[in-house]
Every structure is written in structure tokens, then in C-alpha cells.
Design a protein that fits this description.
Layout: H1 3-21, H2 26-30, E1 33-38, H3 41-52, E2 60-64, H4 71-81, E3 97-101, E4 105-110, H5 117-122, H6 125-129, E5 134-138, E6 152-158, E7 164-170
Parallel strand pairs: 2-5, 2-6, 4-5
Antiparallel strand pairs: 1-7, 3-4, 6-7
Helix pairs in contact: 3-4
Length: 172
């Protein structure tokens, strides 16, 4: 079996798993927001993988949450969906940007250490935002003025040591 065919079957299996695992509440059907509780790192990673199936080249995902909330673990799930091994995904806090060559290029940015949106322009933010991949941006509030009009927002909130509330919605 070819590598491409194996990836297609794997994605189909994941998509079917997603469809059977996710049952929207009546409120979620009427809203553009999906809320989930994560009880472990694995569940946070799985939530990222489920969102990934909805993503396409050119999409931007804004990741919001306190330090240690699980933003990078969420990115690991997105990366896994696109064929990037989870152990290759690291927080880009000191590098500012990590590029992951998967079936779709992923650009994982951490804007925590940036002073302003102009500084983001100096690192080539526009090439990432309007390129051929998917941008995943931690601490996006630092660069609000440079963000595209449409994007996904993922908010991860600590409930306790192991539990997180994950809220996902798409701006329109």
C-alpha cells in the first residue's frame, strides 16, 4: 500500500472517529462555538486533531490561554493530523516560529516575546499568514493589527491541574 493511500485511510478513520465522538448540544448547533472539557493532555491533543480536519491551507488559528494551559499540546494534535510526529512539535517561545513540513505546511508562532505587531512584520509574519500553509499563533493579542479578517479561535482555560475547558469558534 502506498504512503499516500495509507494517509488517506488514516484520515478517513480519524474523520469517522471524529463524527462519532462529537455530538453537538442544541445550543452548539445554534452557535458558532463548540465547547469541550479535556481531562488530560491526550484529550487536548485529540481536540487539536479534530479541529485539524476542518483546516485548509491559508487558515489561521489563534491560540489563547495562560502559560501552561495546553496550547502547544493542542498544536501537537493539529500537527499529527497533517503527518508531523508529535515529538517534533515544541513551543516556539524562544525561536518565535517553528515550521513543520507535513502534508500541509504548518507554521507555529509564539508572539509572547514580541513587543508589538511591527516586530512581527520583521520576522515575516505576512509570508506565514498569507502563504500556502496553516498558521497556529500563540499569544495573538500581541499582533492584533496584523491578523487576517477570518480565523479560528481556540481558548483553553485551566480548571484544575488536569482539566481544561476548550472553546473553539470561527470568526466570520
Amino acid at each position: 500500500m502506498s504512503e499516500l493511500r495509507r494517509q488517506q485511510l488514516w484520515r478517513l478513520r480519524i474523520r469517522n472517529q471524529f463524527l462519532t465522538e462529537i455530538t453537538l448540544t442544541e445550543a452548539e448547533k445554534k452557535s458558532s462555538t463548540i465547547n469541550r472539557k479535556s481531562e488530560s493532555v491526550g484529550e487536548t491533543t485529540a481536540a487539536g486533531q479534530r479541529l485539524a480536519e476542518k483546516l485548509a491551507p491559508g487558515d489561521t488559528v489563534l491560540l489563547k490561554g495562560d502559560l501552561g494551559a495546553g496550547k502547544t499540546h493542542f498544536v501537537k494534535g493539529v500537527a499529527r493530523y497533517f503527518g508531523v510526529p508529535e515529538d517534533e512539535v515544541q513551543s516556539p517561545t524562544f525561536a518565535l516560529v517553528h515550521e513543520y513540513p507535513g502534508s500541509v505546511p504548518l507554521y507555529h508562532l509564539d508572539c509572547y516575546r514580541l513587543n508589538d505587531a511591527d516586530q512581527a512584520g520583521q520576522i515575516g509574519l505576512d509570508e506565514y499568514l498569507y502563504g500556502d500553509g496553516i498558521c497556529l499563533i500563540e499569544w495573538p493579542e500581541k499582533i492584533d493589527s496584523r491578523l487576517p479578517d477570518q480565523y479560528w479561535v481556540v481558548e483553553i482555560r485551566h480548571i484544575n491541574e488536569n482539566t481544561r475547558d476548550i472553546s473553539i469558534h470561527r470568526s466570520l
